[in-house]
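User: I'm preparing a small set of examples for a lab meeting where we compare how different chains pack in three dimensions. I only have the primary sequence for this one, and I'd like the structure in C-alpha cell form so I can line it up with the others. Please keep the answer compact; I'll paste it straight into my notes.
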Amino acid sequence: MRYYLAVDIGASSGRHIVGWKEDGVIKTEEVYRFPNGVASEGGHLIWDTGALLSYVKQGICAAKEKYPEIESLSIDTWGVDYVLMNGDQEIFPCYAYRDSRTEEPIPKVHEKIAFPELYRRTGIQFQPFNTIYQLYADKLAGRLADASDFLLMPEYLMYKLCGVKAHEYTNATTGGMVSAETGEYDAEIIRALDLPAHLFRKLAKPGTAIGEYEGIKVVLCATHDTGSAVEGIPMEEDAPFISSGTWSILGVKTEKPLTDETSLRSNWSNEGGVGYTRYLKNIMGMWIINRLRDELCPGKAFGEIVEEAEASRFEEMVDVNASAFYAPESMKAAFDAALCAKPGSAGDYFRCAYRSLALCYRNAIAELERNTGKTYERIYIVGGGAKNVFLNRLTEEMSGKRVIALPIEATAIGNLKVQMENAEAGTAAEEAKEENV
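Assistant: Understood. Below is the C-alpha cell output for the 437-residue chain.
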C-alpha cells in the first residue's frame, strides 16, 4: 500500500491527512490538526510563519508515527499571500491578505496599467489583496530592495522543508500577474510596475516533484486550496461548484479563460486549474458566521446556531459582499448598520447571515449562466459549509438548482490525487525504461 500526506492549511486551521487507494478509491485519515489565524503587529495583520512551520513539522512526525512509509507530501493553503526572501533569510513581517496596506498602492498600480488592461491580460478579478497590489505596496515601502525571491505561502513552507524554491502555477494565477494566454508571469505587467524581474520564476505545474524531507518526496499539488478542492470534487459533469469555507468560492471549469467585457464588468476570475481554467467568483463565506459567533455566543456549537437561525422569522437580508463585512471591528455592528430592522436575538443575526449568503449564491449562479451562455441544473458544494443542511436548503430554494452537498475533505483529496498521479507516472516511466533495457 502506498501512502501520501496532504497538508491542508486554511485561514483558521490546518490539518494533516494521510491518503491511500483501495480498489481505485481514495481513502483518507486525519492524523493531526492545528490552529491558525492572523495576528496583530504594529497596526498590521500578519501571519506567524514560524508557528505554521512548527505545526507542519509536528504533523509530519505524527503522520510518520502511524504510517512510517509515506511516499510523498504536499501543502496547499489560501492564495495571494507570500514571504519575501533575501537568499535564505526571510524579510518579515509576512502580511495577511486582510491587512489594509494595499489601499494606497491600488490606484497607483492602476495609473501605470489600467484595470481593464490588467483583466484582459490575466483574467483575474479585482480583489484589494491580490498579490500584484501587495508587491507594489512592498515596492513603495522599500521592502523589495533586498529581496531575492517571494514565495507564496505553501511554496514557502515546502521550501523550508526541502530547500527548493518553486512557484506553482495554480497558486500564482490567484495574484493577478500571470498571463491568461501563456500561463507564465506577464513580463509586460512586471515592466509597467518596475518590479524586479528576478522575483518572477518560471511556473511549475501541479505534480512536479521538487525535493525531499526526511526521506519523503515533496511534490507540488495544486497549491492554492481552491485549486485542490476543485480537483477533489467527484462531479459527474462540469457543473458549478461552491468551495465553502472562510470564503465561498463559486465557479465552473472552462476550457479556456473568459476575459471578455461581460466577465470584466461582473468581476469573475480565471484561475489556473489542473488542465482547465477555474472560472469563479469570491463570495463572503463562513467568515461572517464565525465572526458573529465570536461576538454573540462564543463557543456555542454550530448545530445550536443553525437551530436558532431556523427558528427565527427575521426576513431582512444584507449584501454580504459589501466592504463593510470584509474586516470590521464588530461584525454585529456591521449588520446593525446595514439593516433597517434591528435583530432581536442571536438567531435573527444568523438567519439573516445564512439567507444573505444563499441570496448571494443565487445571484452569482444567475450571473454565471449569463456569462457562459449555459444553463445548469445542479450545483456541488464541498468544504465545511457542505455540512450545513439549513444553508444548503436555502441555496436550493433560492437558486432553483439541485444542491449536491459533499461533506468531504475535497481539498485534501485533490492534493492527494495529484501526488498519486505523480507517483503513477513515475512508476509507468520506470516500467517503460525497464522494457527498453
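A couple of notes for your slides: Residues 46 and 95 are 4 Å apart (CA to CA). DSSP finds 15 helices and 17 strands in the chain.

User: Perfect, thanks.
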